[in-house]
Hints:
The protein is mainly β. The protein has one helix at 65-68; strands at 2-11, 25-35, 38-47, 51-57, 73-80, 89-97, 100-105, 108-114, 127-131, 133-140, 152-156. Strand 7 and strand 8 form a beta hairpin.
Amino acid sequence: AAELEFTYRGPTAKVVALASGQRRRQLGLKLRAEDGCNLVYVMWRLEPARELVVSVKRNPGKHDHRGCGAGGYTDVAAVPAPALAPGDHRVLAAAIVDDTLAVTIDGVELWRGPLPANARDLRGPAGVRSDNVAWTTRLRAPLAAGAPARCRAADGD
């Protein structure tokens, strides 16, 4: 589980295409992130379409971008998402219990559903991903049992 509390500052001046060649503005969470090739994404896309997208990226035996590139994605869900305007302060949260993922924005559930079987054995921490958006954020994620809670503030461009 992870919660991303952020203030949207707007689009970046420079737009960089993804490895797939697509140009997107998005901000979201990485869950069960073993590495860049094997993880669950919860992305709040602003452009080209405004939607919340849940994807699993799975590339067994590959562990870095050189090995997997833009391959291995399975889209699980895409639902309409609220608009974001510069200065908006929002909270995106996601939690996986057993094989079910629940996603909320500002405490309102936007999507709940099963993850594919290939996400079941993923093990790793939570993190953040952004593409072509400027933001200020605070990520909260549970740590190992008995570890003290921590928050880290960060700026993203």
